[in-house]
């Protein structure tokens, strides 16, 4: 691998003019940024500011403002993220309770707040008070009986459908980008892809409103993933207030990395977990200063949310729990089993959801997103209402499953047969035999588990804001609670077994079913997303206990190993591949032995590579080439005879520069000579004025030789974030490799990972087999360069002659 110029040398990437051309250096929609180019622009801007800061007090002030702008933008992002998260939590709780009834004393109170000040509640029926009226009481005047149940059932379905219809309508009409989780697109954007409007103000406003509606509708989705999208929208909007970030796409992505950390911080009340989530899961480029700013943004966002206190429990999340019972070595076995379940669930969900989303894209059903949301919401509401565990808000369900059974718990999960000889109430209640309420709750939880598994597959990906964290955690929490109760009863009735008698005495509090629910939730979320370190820290911050880190690590790693056995992609990577986003996953390994010449364009039957010469083309020639091709850039060579590489010019920069020159410079016409060289060649006196475009020329494009292994090329693209790389042979341009070419090559190799003698081709070489090179040498048999016509012209290989070692033929005219 070679590079036309050192990045850190005094030679700049762009030979900037005193008056740069407006628009040059920007990017079109759905294009990839050039990280190297953006970093060089930022270094040039930084040098310019430092050179002027001693000239005057104003320049010193501008320098300080530039230095502190990074901290200012993440502070504003954290403040906005925390405030919006608090608003979403409060509104979602109120609208969720609106499906069941309304508070007559204060319409803006949810069910719990309505009964806080009532003196007529009882311990057994603490959720009932005169101020709160169900819809059956308001409409037909009955609080009990079949008529009341049916009316509440109808109103529950009515409100669920109304919220879902309003959410999908707002998304479809005002902000189509507001649907889904947003994390796959955030990962793609952070890798350098441009999606205009995805992080805009309209998307932010509609996503905030429709997220509340989608959660309140009772669909099997969560708000934690979309909160990352909301936070990134805030970071993107605030970055436009600071020129340092508004004019540099690479610097802007540092702000977005910090914003994603703030989003997870307010979603789970886990600032440290948010930083690790940004580092492990979504960020593509994460320098040390971004780590500090991400931590600060997460801290500010968590502080704002804590000040708002949306749940009234002085915590950042609804399902914060604390356990006091230690775990024992034997319990690692059921914890690992929960990890296996989480991995199996993750593998099943990814395959089923991707298959359904692919079917949605390829059939007429995908053309009616409103109808799909209405159908899914109707099925969810009809099935969810009869079961109290599916009727609950998913966050409240997780809270109930996480909570340990204490003396003040009235849930059916805590309906144990009490010891009548107990003389006092203590915090650590010993293990007891399960009562009828527990067995009834287990059956209801089993039905809820099946319901959640099926509906989550069909819900994730519909055209409303839909997160995956909470549904996955709910599925794992249900499975974990069931396993925890089973182990608890096993220890109670068989305490004399050798696995129990050493540490579980009669009358002791040995097993905590809520802990199993927490481990199961982490395992299922890890199986779906393949998160490890950040997930353990997030759940650890939820519980506030250090001693449960080992069970969490064991379950999460087991779920990842089991899930990876069925496929190494997490759900977000699978959706990125499904949508065709240009994302090079750094977690994938490239183990094939192909060369750069096997991947570069042009291929054998393709048109020749379009190139520019540095001083013998006219404006009309370049405009014709731009109009006749769709390439994003063109290599610039010295001449048709020399064919040596000079640099690389982007299509957008050429278009903008020519349009600007026609408007601002006199004498620029279609026959004007275009010069990319440092010195203009001598022209006849009657010639029109030449157009100098050296300022837009990349003088140090990255190049590799045709024999460079693709393993190295892929590594270069991943670590440097390149858009394209030129392939040369002794300084002569042979072709070009773009990010899209690499992604296509990786996809083709994935489809043909079998050995050469496979079951498909048991007696012949498969058509995708190739040896070393797919192109003839740059020099012909006479030792002279092969001829080219204003570009790289690869002569066809004579099919009648014997194939050389350096060449290859694809059998049966099959091309990759």
From TrEMBL:
Transmembrane portions of the chain: 68-92, 156-178, 198-219, 226-243, 255-279, 328-350, 370-389, 441-462, 474-495, 515-540
Protein name in UniProt: Chloride channel protein
Described function: Strongly outwardly rectifying, electrogenic H(+)/Cl(-)exchanger which mediates the exchange of chloride ions against protons. The CLC channel family contains both chloride channels and proton-coupled anion transporters that exchange chloride or another anion for protons. The presence of conserved gating glutamate residues is typical for family members that function as antiporters.
Feature: compositional bias, Acidic residues: 797-806
GO cellular component: early endosome membrane; Golgi apparatus; late endosome membrane; lysosomal membrane; plasma membrane; synaptic vesicle
Location of region: Disordered: 772-816
Entries under InterPro entries matching the protein: CBS_dom (IPR000644), CBS_dom_sf (IPR046342), Cl-channel_core (IPR014743), ClC (IPR001807), ClC3 (IPR002245)
Keyword entries, A-Z: Antiport, ATP-binding, CBS domain, Cell membrane, Chloride, Endosome, Glycoprotein, Ion transport, Lysosome, Membrane, Nucleotide-binding, Repeat, Transmembrane, Transmembrane helix, Transport
Family of the protein in this entry: Belongs to the chloride channel (TC 2.A.49) family. ClC-3/CLCN3 subfamily.
Record localization: Cell membrane; Early endosome membrane; Late endosome membrane; Lysosome membrane
Pfam families: CBS, Voltage_CLC
PROSITE patterns: CBS
Gene Ontology MF, one: voltage-gated chloride channel activity
Record organism: Galemys pyrenaicus
UniProt domain CBS: residue ranges: 600-664, 697-756
Membrane topology: Multi-pass membrane protein
């Amino acid at each position: 691998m070679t590079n036309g110029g050192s990045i850190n040398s005094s030679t700049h990437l762009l030979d900037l003019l005193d008056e740069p051309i407006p628009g040059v250096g920007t990017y079109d929609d759905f294009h990839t940024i050039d990280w190297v180019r953006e970093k060089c622009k930022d270094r040039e801007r930084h040098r310019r500011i430092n050179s002027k800061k001693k000239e005057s007090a104003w320049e010193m002030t501008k320098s300080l403002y530039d230095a502190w702008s990074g901290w200012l933008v993440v502070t504003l992002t954290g403040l906005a993220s925390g405030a919006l998260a608090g608003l979403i939590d409060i509104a979602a709780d109120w609208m969720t309770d609106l499906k069941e009834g309304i508070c007559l004393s204060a319409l803006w109170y949810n069910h719990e707040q309505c009964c806080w000040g009532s003196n007529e509640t009882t311990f057994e029926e603490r959720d009932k008070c005169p101020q709160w009226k169900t819809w059956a009481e308001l409409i037909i005047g009955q609080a009990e009986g079949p008529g009341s149940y049916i009316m509440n059932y109808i109103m529950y379905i009515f409100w669920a459908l109304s919220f879902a219809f309003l959410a999908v309508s707002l998304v479809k009409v005002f902000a189509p980008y507001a649907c889904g989780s947003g994390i796959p697109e955030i990962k793609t954007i952070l890798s350098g892809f441009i999606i205009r409007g995805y992080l805009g103000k309209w998307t932010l406003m509609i996503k905030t409103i429709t997220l509340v509606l989608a959660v309140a509708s009772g669909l099997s989705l969560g708000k934690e993933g979309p909160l990352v999208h909301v936070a990134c929208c805030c970071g993107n909007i605030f970055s436009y207030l600071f020129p340092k970030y508004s004019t540099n796409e690479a610097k802007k992505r540092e702000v977005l990395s910090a914003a994603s950390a703030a989003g997870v911080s307010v979603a789970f009340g886990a600032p440290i977990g948010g930083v690790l989530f940004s580092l492990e899961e979504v960020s593509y480029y994460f320098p040390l200063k971004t780590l500090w700013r991400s931590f600060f943004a997460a801290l500010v966002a968590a502080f704002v949310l804590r000040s708002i206190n949306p749940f009234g429990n002085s915590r950042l999340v609804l399902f914060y729990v604390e356990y006091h019972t230690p775990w024992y070595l034997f319990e690692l076995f059921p914890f690992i089993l929960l990890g296996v379940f989480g991995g199996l669930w993750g593998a099943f969900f990814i395959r089923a959801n991707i298959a359904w989303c692919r079917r949605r894209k390829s059939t007429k059903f995908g053309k009616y997103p409103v109808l799909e949301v209405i159908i899914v919401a109707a099925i969810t509401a009809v099935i969810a209402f009869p079961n109290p565990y599916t009727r609950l808000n998913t966050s409240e369900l997780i809270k109930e499953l996480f909570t340990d059974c204490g003396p003040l718990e009235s849930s059916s999960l805590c309906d144990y047969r009490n010891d009548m000889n107990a003389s006092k109430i203590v915090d650590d209640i010993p293990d007891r035999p399960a009562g009828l309420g527990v067995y009834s709750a287990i059956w209801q939880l089993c039905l809820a588990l099946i319901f959640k598994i099926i509906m989550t597959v069909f819900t994730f990906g519909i055209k409303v804001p839909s997160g995956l964290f909470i549904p996955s955690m709910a599925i794992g929490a249900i499975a974990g609670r069931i396993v925890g109760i089973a182990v608890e009863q096993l220890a109670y009735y068989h305490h004399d077994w050798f696995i129990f008698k050493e540490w579980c005495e009669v009358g002791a509090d040995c097993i905590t079913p809520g802990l199993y629910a927490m481990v199961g939730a982490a395992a299922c979320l890890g199986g779906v997303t393949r998160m490890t370190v950040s997930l353990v820290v997030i759940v650890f911050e939820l519980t506030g206990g250090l001693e449960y880190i080992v069970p969490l690590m064991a379950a999460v790693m087991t779920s990842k190993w089991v899930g990876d056995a069925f496929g190494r992609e997490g759900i977000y990577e699978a959706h990125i591949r499904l949508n065709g986003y240009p994302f090079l996953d750094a977690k994938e390994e490239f183990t094939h032995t192909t060369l750069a010449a096997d991947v570069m364009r042009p291929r054998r039957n393709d048109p020749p590579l379009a190139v520019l010469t540095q001083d013998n083309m006219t404006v009309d020639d370049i405009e014709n080439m731009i109009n006749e091709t769709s390439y994003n850039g063109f290599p610039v060579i010295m001449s048709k005879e020399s064919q040596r590489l000079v640099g690389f010019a982007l299509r957008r920069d050429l278009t903008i520069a020519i349009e600007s020159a026609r408007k601002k410079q006199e004498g620029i016409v279609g026959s004007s000579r275009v010069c990319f060289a440092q010195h203009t060649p001598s022209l006849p006196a009657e010639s029109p004025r030449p157009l100098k475009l050296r300022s837009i020329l990349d003088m140090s494009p990255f190049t590799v030789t045709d024999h460079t292994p693709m393993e190295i090329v892929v590594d270069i693209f991943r670590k440097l974030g390149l858009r394209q790389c030129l392939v040369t042979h002794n300084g002569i341009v042979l072709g070009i490799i773009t990010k899209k070419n690499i992604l296509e090559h990786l996809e083709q190799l994935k489809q043909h990972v079998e050995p050469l003698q496979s079951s498909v081709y048991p007696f012949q070489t498969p058509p995708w087999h190739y040896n070393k090179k797919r192109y003839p040498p740059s020099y012909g048999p006479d030792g002279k360069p092969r001829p080219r016509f204003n570009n790289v012209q690869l002569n066809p290989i004579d099919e009648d002659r014997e194939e050389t070692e350096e060449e290859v033929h694809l059998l049966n005219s099959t091309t990759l």
